Amino acid sequence: MLMVFAGSAQRLDGPEVRRPKAHHEMSPENGLNFSEDPFSGHLSDREYWLQQMDKLARPVIYHLAQDDLKRSMPLVLSKRTDNAGLRSRAAYLEAFGRTLCGIAPWLGGEGGSSKELALRSQYRAWVLAAIAHTTDPAAADYMAWDNPEQALVDAAFFAFAFVRCPWLWEHLDTAGRGRVVTALVSTRKIRPGFNNWLLFSGMIEAFFCRYNLPYDEMRIDYAIRQTDQWYVGDGLYSDGPAYHNDYYNSFVIHPFLTAITDIIHTKNGSYASLLDKFRQRDQRYALIQERLVNADGSYPVMGRSVVYRGAAFQHLADMAWRQQLPAQLKPAQVRCALTAVIRRTMEATGTYTKDGWLNIGVCGSQPDQADFYNTTGSLYLCSLILLPLGLPDTDVFWSSPPEQWTAQKIWSGQDVSGDHSID
Questions:
Q1: 162-181 tens-digit pLDDT
Q2: Which residue among 64, 110, 118, 253 is least packed, with the fewest CB closer than 10 Å?
Q3: pTM score > 0.90 for this model?
């Protein structure tokens, strides 16, 4: 492993950055604690998810709110890294954009227990401060938005957070909005690769479209139509001209493609037939994803970027949050399946450093699982499994009794309906 410590980072010259006051009683060392249910002897699934979210997101969001992420987050790069300098430069935006995208639906939600309400209020204050610091050139944590090329990826996750959580945009002042727009416009100089990266450019333009800002419709249309050309059947797309057996259909393709198309169709009404196809494919891939969760919460570890852990199931989580699950899947069985994945990927010894930062791995610390582009920051894509926290605690996803998922039913001898292709 190549270790890069950012402790020598210097504050940029310029005026002090003003940020919303945070509730200082909640520090990195003072996380969320729910009492166990005295009758059942364990936390509810939602309480457990909230604890896991807080443990995961707190170091990133808290330190950005204090404008000291670059001084606080230790960077671990893949031992096969192609360029330590550029990968280190990109890692901070990776950590923020990905974490924010995963917790965005919850940030925009309302209701919950008194503890959840307090936690959401705290995170909203932190996130607004974090956005200010990451987009203000005078801040120590100002991010590299237009260089290296990796910035396009994580600027797109950042933009997707605003799409998933309008509350963020609504609560930025005029100057804050201007800095966000300037940061995202600067990414246009980066030419996307001929693969899932087209959707990153498309998402940034979709953000502009969503908030009635000048946008490049050609980048959106090209991303949509070219990705449609890469459909290979049975709910799956290739990532570029060649198909790869990995989780990029969930990491990026399905969630981005449908969100982008929804936004532009709402604007001009020109994508109805494509949306119908995409939604049918979304439902099929959700069925496939649910069946990939083994009876113990493990799943096949294959392809690249496996160290993104639970992000392998972003699509299933996204479908649950958007209440678009196919009729064959009960929300409770999806909740239980995703909970099992969270437990398998986040509770293993070595998942976190002693200071609370993620280690490279799928189940604990497994640095050899890293691809050449992986950094500490990129690992925070795993927050995307948490999207259903954007549903209120009264929704059937959370309120229904536990349900076995398909693998549990089959491997306990139950008879379940067979699986069939849509093509």
A1: 999 999 999 999 999 999 99
A2: 110
A3: yes
